[in-house]
Design goal:
Elements (H helix, E strand, L loop, with lengths): L2 H8 L2 E7 L6 H11 L8 H6 L6 H11 L6 H17 L2 E8 L1 H5 L5 H19 L2 E9 L4 H11 L8 E5 L11 H9 L3 E6 L5 H9 L5 E4 L7 H9 L3 E4 L1 H6 L11 H6 L3 E4 L4 H4 L3 H9 L6 H13 L5 H17 L2
Parallel strand pairs: 1-2, 2-3, 3-4, 4-5, 5-6, 6-7, 7-8
Helix pairs in contact: 1-15, 5-7, 16-17
The structure holds adenine and zinc ion (ZN).
Length: 338
């Protein structure tokens, strides 16, 4: 590892963009398949990894939804979450805001409550063993319709005080933010935060509409916002957090190489960018692998890496006191590295 990557690895950080279903490593996929008597279309872990070759988002989504089929019981969701949090803690993640896709599970007959109870058990374990705090973000699958999203929000109501925000993920192009205007409005009335994937493959208008129609607090990805200078100025002025995912962008061909990644341009434009892993089991790396890949390009300074970690706390669904505490820990780390 380069000095910069080592420095980045030690930074206390928050992860704000990780799909818990995307942390399902092939080894755990096989174990859960065996435990639950589920057949998977792969003979070995190596065969699973070899299948992870994508040219666009939809290639990945097809295999990701199939992988999730091994998740059946509360214990499965708990073990999935524990495995992620253990890995995140090793990367000095102090706070994580995890997406989950309830429709992927309820559509297979898995009760919403099973998913929630399992994830909450994993979150409690992370707090107890690592002091790692976490929040849940319920994502609506944007390839499904508004009615299905409303049904999901209804199923979530008994758990509403355990959910920080709603999000929007899955196939972006052809499923614009406006499709979910009413359900995001209903979520806001329930007191939930709002985030949305936008500008990953979709055009800058989707980023603008996520802000104006869905009234989001953060934009997930946001890469294509850079095509619109007026939008960039607005995102900077309003200090909108972008949850950027470099290795995901590489694996889904959103960028041609890590060297071509726009993260440096985002920071130079004054955008509140953060570094995240998205679906680490599928894209070849957890949050520190993403920091290392970017650090190794040489396009960022130490100060930039500190800014990225600082932004991750500033953009979190945490109260001011918690944010201040995390920023003080970040400053202490930096002081030890001088
Ligand atoms: N679901 C899981 N990962 C995703 C991504 N990167 N974009 C859209 N939907 C997703
Ligand atoms: Zn994502």
């Amino acid at each position: 590892m380069t000095d910069l990557a080592t420095f980045a690895a030690g930074l206390p950080k928050a992860e704000l963009h990780v799909h818990i279903e995307g942390t399902l490593e092939p080894e755990l996929m096989f174990e859960l398949a065996r435990r639950n008597g589920v057949t998977i279309p792969f003979a070995s872990v190596d065969e699973v990894r070899a299948a992870y070759s994508f040219t666009r988002l939809q290639d990945f989504l097809d295999i990701y939804y199939r992988g999730a089929d091994v998740l059946r019981t509360e214990a499965d969701f708990r073990d999935l979450a524990i495995a992620y949090f253990d890995r995140a803690a090793a990367d000095n993640v102090r706070h994580a805001e995890i997406f989950f896709d309830p429709q992927t599970h309820t559509d297979r007959g898995i009760p919403f409550d099973t998913v929630m109870a399992g994830l909450l058990a994993g979150m409690a374990d992370a707090e107890a063993r690592h002091g790692l705090s976490s929040r849940l973000i319920l994502c609506f699958l944007r390839h499904l319709d508004e009615e299905a999203a409303f049904a999901t929000l209804k199923a979530a109501e008994p758990w509403i005080d355990r959910i920080a925000a709603v999000g929007l993920d899955s196939s972006e192009v052809g499923n614009p933010p406006a499709k979910f205007e009413r359900v995001f409005g209903a979520a806001a009335l329930l007191g939930l935060g709002r985030v949305a994937h936008a500008g990953e493959e979709g055009p800058p208008e989707y980023v603008r509409d996520a802000l104006d129609v869905l009234l989001v607090d953060r934009i997930d990805h946001g890469n294509r916002a850079l095509e619109d200078p007026v939008l960039v100025t607005r995102l900077a002025r309003e200090a909108i957090t972008l949850t950027v995912c470099p290795l995901s962008n590489l694996k889904l061909c959103v960028v041609d190489s890590v060297d071509a990644h726009p993260i440096a341009r985002m920071l130079r434009a004054g955008l509140r960018a953060t570094i995240n892993s998205d679906d680490p089991a599928y894209f070849g790396g957890y949050v520190n692998d993403n920091f290392a890949a970017i650090a190794d390009t040489g396009m960022l300074s130490r100060a930039d890496l500190i800014t990225l970690a600082r932004n991750s706390f500033l953009g979190a669904f945490l109260d001011d006191e918690a944010i201040t505490g995390h920023l003080a820990a970040l400053d202490s780390y930096v002081d030890t590295q001088r």
